[in-house]
Structure to design on (123 residues):
């Protein structure tokens, strides 16, 4: 085995998941190769540092629209209320959002059967 040359680069693209539903992604990185030591087809190992994400985690199934901008919540008087949220991150099965308080009851199944202002029974 040779030496362990390390270098840094910049992420220029994140492609689709390698296995749908997993956390494995193909990442394109721009690296200076002035010495010509990197060749096409070579195996490399990398690490990508991401900024911390702050927000509330909800199931991705909770969104009531294709843009992931609205969810239904259950208020303290057991009434459905549609609210706007901002999706910050998504793992496929869960999303981190802002615009909803921690501890809020979020409807994650059956949203098409209820509407804004309807009374519900929570089980």
């Amino acid at each position: 085995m040779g030496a362990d040359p390390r270098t840094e680069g910049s992420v220029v693209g994140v492609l689709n998941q390698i296995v749908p539903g997993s956390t494995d992604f193909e990442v394109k990185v721009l690296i200076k190769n002035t010495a010509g030591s990197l060749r096409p087809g070579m195996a490399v190992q990398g690490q990508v540092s991401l900024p911390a994400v702050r927000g509330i985690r909800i199931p991705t199934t909770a969104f009531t629209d294709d843009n992931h901008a609205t969810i239904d919540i259950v208020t303290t008087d057991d009434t459905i209320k549609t609210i706007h949220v901002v999706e910050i991150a998504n793992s496929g099965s869960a999303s981190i959002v802002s615009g909803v308080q921690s501890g809020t009851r979020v409807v994650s199944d059956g949203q098409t059967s209820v509407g804004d202002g309807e009374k519900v029974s929570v089980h």
Summary: Strands lie at 9-17, 25-31, 56-59, 70-74, 80-84, 86-90, 94-98, 105-106.
